Amino acid sequence: MDLSASGKAFPPYEFHVERGKIREFADAIGDQNPIYRDPDYAAKSSAGGILAPPTMLRSFLYETRDSIEALKVKDWSYIVHGEQEFEYLAPVVAGDVLTAQDTITSIVEKESRRAGKLQIAVIETTFRNQRGETVQIARRTLVETGKRIEE
Amino acid sequence: MAQTLEFHSIHVGDAPPPLICGPLTRTDFVRYAGASHDFNPNHHDEVYAIANGNKSVFGMGMLAGGYCARLLTGWLGDVSLRRLRIRFVSRFWPDDVITCTAEVTEKDDHARLVRCEFSAVNQNGEVIIRGDASAYLGDQG
């Protein structure tokens, strides 16, 4: 990885949170909760609308590859997705238009007996809604290993 | 679902009934690929996955994460989560049966936050993911 990419922020990108996409995501994790699919039920709930499931916004991180490319990874078979974190500040509901911005918050090096020299990058994505409220912060930790990781 | 769990009625050590998913199929992985936009071919293209040194396609860590999040929201409430952290430990495969469990590890009376740890294991008890979460159980509908 390119250690000098640490601290870089990338251009914001916008996407729409669609009702059909929420239902599709809920179906994929087998969640029949009506808050993900029934507009009348959802409107009366504390979310106030059809709610995006907690891990759904991870899907929108594929909208741009700017931050990933800035890491300048030579061989992706040496990369593992080590950790994924979300902070929830306000509900995200169908109809929201979110603006996301990626920042590479850190890249650190560590020695590991099992995997050789490790480089650990954290990409933080801040999601704001159409009212300018920060609704979620996602952090993904990508680890480049010195050796190819086998089972 | 609409939940009635209140802060005073939950205690350290409390756990929801485990959530059991599977036996998982390749179709489950493909459905999640479409829903999540994760088109890493290791998860849907058997020819690619085997050529890449795997015994078959394998599931997305975030699919197991989604199952655990489903366990947590079903237990603690639809909009109660404040933080969720997932650590990816090992892979899972078609025909695996995944069991998701969680347990309250700490209560913050002042902030009305409940902290819990969770994990997803396969049918042999091998950990696929583990993580921790915090949920606010103060005023909510």
Question: What tags apply to this protein structure?
Answer:
heterodimer, A: 151 residues, Thiol Ester Dehydrase, Chain A, 5 strands, B: 141 residues, alpha+beta, 23% helix, 29% strand
SSE blueprint:
The complex is a heterodimer of chains A (151) and B (141).
Chain A: E1 13-16, H1 19-28, H2 39-44, H3 66-70, E2 79-88, E3 97-112, E4 116-128, E5 134-144
Antiparallel strand pairs in A: 1-3, 2-5, 3-4, 4-5
Chain B: E1 19-21, H1 26-36, H2 46-51, H3 61-76, E2 81-88, E3 98-108, E4 113-121, E5 127-136
Antiparallel strand pairs in B: 1-3, 2-5, 3-4, 4-5
Can you describe what's shown?
The complex is a heterodimer of chains A (151) and B (141). With 151 residues, chain A is mainly beta. Chain A has a domain at 3-16 and 54-144: Thiol Ester Dehydrase, Chain A (Roll). Helices cover 14% and strands 36% of the residues of chain A. The longest helix of chain A is centred in the N-terminal third of the chain and has 10 residues, at 19-28. The mean pLDDT of chain A is 92. Chain B has 141 residues and is of the alpha+beta class. Chain B has a domain at 12-24 and 61-136: Thiol Ester Dehydrase, Chain A (Roll). The interface between A and B is large, with 36 and 38 residues. Strand 2 (79-88) of chain A pairs antiparallel with strand 2 (81-88) of chain B.
Short description:
Chain A is mainly beta. Chain A has helices at residues 19-28, 39-44, 66-70, and strands at residues 13-16, 79-88, 97-112, 116-128, 134-144.
